[in-house]
Amino acid sequence: EDQVTQSPEALRLQEGESSSLNCSYTVSGLRGLFWYRQDPGKGPEFLFTLYSAGEEKEKERLKATLTKKESFLHITAPKPEDSATYLCAVQADAGGTSYGKLTFGQGTILTVHP
Amino acid sequence: NAGVTQTPKFQVLKTGQSMTLQCAQDMNHEYMSWYRQDPGMGLRLIHYSVGAGITDQGEVPNGYNVSRSTTEDFPLRLLSAAPSQTSVYFCASSYPSGSGADTQYFGPGTRLTVL
Description:
The complex is a heterodimer of chains A (114) and B (115).
Chain A: E1 3-7, E2 10-14, E3 19-26, E4 30-38, E5 45-50, E6 56-59, E7 62-66, E8 70-75, E9 84-92, E10 103-104, E11 108-113
Parallel strand pairs in A: 2-11
Antiparallel strand pairs in A: 1-3, 3-8, 4-5, 4-9, 6-7, 7-8, 9-10, 9-11
Chain B: E1 4-7, E2 10-13, E3 19-25, E4 31-38, E5 42-51, E6 54-57, E7 64-66, E8 76-78, E9 87-94, E10 105-106, E11 110-114
Parallel strand pairs in B: 2-11
Antiparallel strand pairs in B: 1-3, 3-8, 4-5, 4-9, 5-6, 7-8, 9-10, 9-11
């Protein structure tokens, strides 16, 4: 069974204080690992897809990295507008049967204070 | 493009009532999925579809039905609502990328309360 665990559950930062969010996963074979941002009352918004260990992707103050067991979302010099819940999800490599199926972690609630 | 749209945004039902949550996408995506989101539990897959006429069960399918007669629409039916189905429901659509991973794009959600 595929499993995704995110830590911490909640993170409070001061504006400009860099930190990282963790996503540990167990999957029989990884087709892709995804990061989403979710604002209150909204649907998840796609941020990144990582496909293989060693891969890194960046977008503004966010950088996602991937190893064989976990992924990190690094936030550099965060601003209050980065406050949101960040979700991690995996798609297993199970042939044609894994399309349309993601397994999500419970999310990390990030609050950035000015 | 409107992307993925969901209606209604909010709904209150009484136990035993039935209803359909609507989902539509205008991106010509092959795959569509329904998730529910409960506090502290992340998103859990209810049903998914890999094309018109093809659906399958996800992690928590009991009490829900789906059908997919067109590429654009993927309605979710609650047959006899129960308080345990109080949740926020998200619809997503995706397409197969060259790498084999399909990136899902989500709708704004339907917040359902069952009394």
